[in-house]
Write a structure and sequence with these properties.
Layout lengths: L3 E6 L4 H16 L8 E4 L4 H13 L7 E4 L3 H14 L4
Parallel strand pairs: 1-2, 1-3
Amino acid sequence: MKKIAVICYDFDVNALTERRQGCIDMLRQYKLLDPGLIKDIRYQGQEEEIKQAIHDLKNYPDKIDAYIFLFTESIYYRSKVYVQKRDKNF
């Protein structure tokens, strides 16, 4: 089974909630959902939470085949900057 990790914001804004749920529904439909690979980021303290989520996923016992960075340009940008500093092959 493919392992797909999702990093997303966890706060109640309708568009973000719908995107998150749509992603989870799609993973469930194709039998790819692993709740341990869904990392919710709170808006407050997001920079540290993004770092922790990436650290947790990189240390996941199984190889992760794909990463989905959901919902906003800022979460993608912060994740990308952190990863590029830590691992050029990510």
